[in-house]
Design goal:
about 25% helix; elongated; protein kinase activity; 17 helices; 7-stranded mixed β-sheet; 7-stranded antiparallel β-sheet; Transferase(Phosphotransferase), domain 1; alpha+beta; 2 domains
């Protein structure tokens, strides 16, 4: 995976110049000078680490170079001496350093998946790596890392606090000052509650400090002279190896791990505590706001948006994504996420004086949970890792299956890092409360302290608060639903779920929200026994927007969605004459068609193994023109190569009707683009269309349902699954269960984490892509 990760981070690297005294200055209250005077490895008078300087002198005498392999042991001894001294003084979590240059650690990948990302020429770049070996690894245990014992002789990324790389001054060059990115990618994958990964590249003389986070890689310059500036070096080693914030201060908001995620001893999955910011008072405030009905005054949706930028200042932000079982393991494309420039903002008059939205959604601040007293604490027991986004940068989405520790209610917890100027997903979910066909939120937590700029400022005092690529962490709790719609139990089950999800999209559209990422894993089966309207639900509002936002014409080229389900107009934005029309509800309806088609072309019945018709590979092509060409052919002939299970008049009639509508709408867009100087705005499209197209779509589905109800049903019960493991909890944050002692029968065991479930994550989200 290493080449692919390099591509991911190639435009996300930056340097920041600072004084070394500003690096981890929160630890300046530690007796570091005293340690250096007392440490037998350091000569305080000569200001040098004895073994390292001896290696330098020997190399000079022999007119040779210091060998990298000769640095591992002395560096390990120095780092361990720091831990031994300050662990006793600080009474922190267990941590130790291990030479792992010859001890590769397993990657967590889907072994049947071939990942690829585009290179600069737009060609696929492939790579799969099973193991990597950091030169040195700072390992740890305790409730913030794991709930199982750790074999110290078998290091795992799940227990790695910081992977370190070792070079020599002679071999170090600009390119190698950053470590192999795949090391840090694995930390994020195998430690899903990771906020950032701090590390150093060490030589016999210097330490180069780096921080990997959801915004990319930050390199601090100049490097630290580990001999003459040993105080800064020791302070940095303490900083990068600290799990829980600053020394003695225990500032949980600065920690590289989420302090709200903790393991109880002898459990595989953690508990998550959430300070719920959705209070009954806030709920009432939101529900009192008027619905989007085109009858009142407009207001600016995104109050955090910047001032309007000049033309040509747009900056597209591409987010590489992983791949899973569906739609096809062969592609992990580029998931586009809107940049500052794409996020619409109004300048002057509102876009449409007939639209009113909830003022509360603009005015709510990012809450400071450390000072707010009215929040309620909810505790959840995690039962499964549903999904972990397998990239370093971007939203870093993590989904946990869990149950409420008090009520036993099943929930889905979603963590993500949104771009600071994007509207928070929870704000949209507040507006869709009790809306049929749409996933429902139970609780949320959103903290401005949990942001990239906050972490970077903690690591390097003085880092600018106005950082333009900032991301903010949020956690939402959703009602638990079924699996992806591809796990249908019968034809009627599939049609019911499909119909209600489309109706849910209609409800969103009529309330003034456009989803923009309709895909097979964002349409879920409803809970057992769900009534009409909720037999299928639409989830994931990361890419959703309000229809009344203002955007510059050039920004119509910026498109979002999951590649396999993107519409032809989205894929072909640049082929329109002049400025292309906005991405709208018709593009989402076309995405719904591709979901149904995907199932009919790949699944020969309920719970059947996924087939892979060759032409479907092109639906995920990184080249937009290839993808759009094969989809155009499908719209013209939508019933060729259907699986036998779906090769009947009911489904063929439905597919032909929906495909005919989608193709007609695409041709109309092309005509409008060629005849008009300026395309219509999204709000203009909304005012004109209303629910007309949705209703036509739904009539076709309802006709298919009516016909299918008259057929002999082919109900197939889902395969029996083993019951979930019982989780015994004896929760106590201050429990001594995680303490580690040296020596005795447990000398090679430390209390720590069990890696993520061995079967890997459940149904993955799909590879995302921006249209070319």
């Amino acid at each position: 995976m290493r080449p692919a990760v390099k591509v991911e981070l190639r435009n996300c690297k930056e340097s920041y110049e600072t004084d070394t005294k500003n690096i981890y200055r929160t630890h300046d209250d530690l007796p570091i000078e005293q340690f250096l005077r007392e440490c037998s490895l350091y000569d305080h008078d000569s200001v040098e680490w004895k073994e390292l300087k001896q290696l330098i002198r020997e190399a000079q005498r022999s007119q040779s170079r210091v060998a990298e392999s000769s640095l591992y042991e002395p560096l390990c001894r120095i780092i361990q001496a720091i831990f031994d001294y300050f662990d006793e003084w600080q009474d922190l979590h267990p941590r130790w350093v291990k030479d792992t240059h010859n001890n590769p650690m397993d990657h967590k990948e889907e072994t049947d998946v071939l990942y690829f990302i585009q290179n600069e020429e737009g060609e696929p770049l492939t790579s799969v790596t099973a193991k990597t070996a950091p030169d040195l690894s700072i390992m740890g245990g305790g409730p913030y890392l794991s709930g199982r014992e750790i074999d110290v002789d078998t290091p795992q990324y799940a227990h790695c606090i910081s992977p370190l790389e070792v070079k020599t001054e002679a071999t170090l060059n600009k390119a190698s000052r950053t470590s192999p990115e795949s090391l840090y990618r694995q930390c994020f994958i195998q430690q899903p509650h990771r906020r950032y990964v701090p590390t150093v590249v060490l030589t016999e003389s210097r330490a180069h400090v780096h921080v990997y986070d959801r915004s990319g890689v930050l390199r601090l310059t100049p490097s630290i002279d580990i001999h003459a500036d040993a105080v800064a070096f020791v302070r940095t080693i303490i900083g990068i190896s600290t799990v829980f914030g600053g020394s003695k201060k225990n500032n949980e908001f600065d920690a590289p791990f989420d302090y709200n995620v903790q393991w109880v001893a002898d459990t595989d999955y953690p508990q998550i505590q959430i300070y719920n910011q959705w209070t009954s008072e806030k709920d009432d405030k939101e529900s009192d706001s008027e619905d989007f009905d085109g009858s009142s005054e407009a207001s600016d949706w995104d109050s955090e948006a910047p001032e309007k930028e000049s033309e040509g200042s747009e900056e597209e932000e591409e987010e590489p994504d992983d791949s899973g079982e569906e739609p096809n393991g062969s592609y992990a494309g580029l998931e586009h996420e809107e940049s500052d420039a794409e996020i619409e903002h109004s300048g002057g008059e509102p876009a449409n004086p007939t639209v009113q939205l909830s003022d509360a959604l603009y005015q709510d601040p990012e809450y400071d949970c450390s000072t707010t007293t009215f929040l309620t604490l909810n505790l959840y027991d995690v039962t499964n890792m549903r999904f972990v986004r397998r990239t370093v940068t971007g939203r870093g989405t993590v989904c946990w299956d869990a149950v409420d520790a008090e009520t036993g209610q099943a929930v889905l917890i979603k963590d993500s890092w949104r771009y600071s100027r994007r509207i928070a997903e929870w704000k949209l979910l507040m507006q869709t409360k009790d809306m049929d066909g749409v996933g429902q939120m139970i609780a949320f937590e959103d903290r401005s302290q949990s942001s990239i700029v906050h972490f970077r400022h903690f690591i390097c005092y003085g880092f600018p608060r106005s950082y333009s690529h900032n991301r903010i962490f949020s956690r939402i709790v959703l009602q638990a639903y079924g699996q992806s719609i591809r796990h249908f139990d019968s034809k009627l089950h599939l049609l019911y779920a499909f119909r209600d999800a489309v109706a849910g999209h209609r409800n969103l559209w009529m309330s003034g929200i456009l989803h923009r990422d309709v895909s097979i894993d964002n349409v879920l089966l409803g809970q057992d026994g769900s009534k009409e309207g909720n037999r299928g639900v639409l989830i994931d509002f990361d890419m959703a927007i309000k229809v009344d936002r203002i955007r510059k014409p050039s920004q119509h080229l910026i498109r979002t969605g999951t590649r396999a389900f993107q519409s032809i107009a989205v894929l072909n934005a640049r082929v329109f004459e002049g400025v292309p029309p906005p991405q709208d509800h018709l593009d989402d309806l076309e995405s719904f068609l591709y979901i149904l088609a995907w199932i009919c072309l790949k699944h020969n019945g309920p719970h059947s193994r996924s087939m892979s018709p060759e032409f479907l590979d092109d639906w995920e092509s990184p080249k937009g023109h290839v993808c759009s060409a094969v989809k155009t052919q499908f719209l013209i002939q939508p019933t060729t190569m259907l699986q036998q299970y779906f090769n009947n008049e009911i489904f063929k009639t439905l597919l032909k009707a929906l495909a005919g509508m989608c193709y007609k709408h695409y041709l109309e867009k092309v005509t409008i683009s060629s005849e008009q100087e300026a395309p219509p705005t999204l709000i203009d499209v909304h005012k004109k269309a209303q629910a007309t197209h949705h209703d036509a779509f739904l009539r076709c589905i309802d006709e298919a349902i009516e016909k299918q109800q008259k057929e002999k049903e082919d109900w197939v019960r889902p395969p029996v699954t083993p019951p979930a493991k019982s989780v015994q909890r004896g929760y106590s944050k201050k429990s001594g269960l995680h303490k580690v002692t040296r020596g005795g029968n447990s000398k090679n065991k430390r209390r720590g984490d069990h890696s993520d479930d061995d079967d890997g994550p459940g149904p993955s989200k799909r590879s995302k892509a921006s249209a070319e």
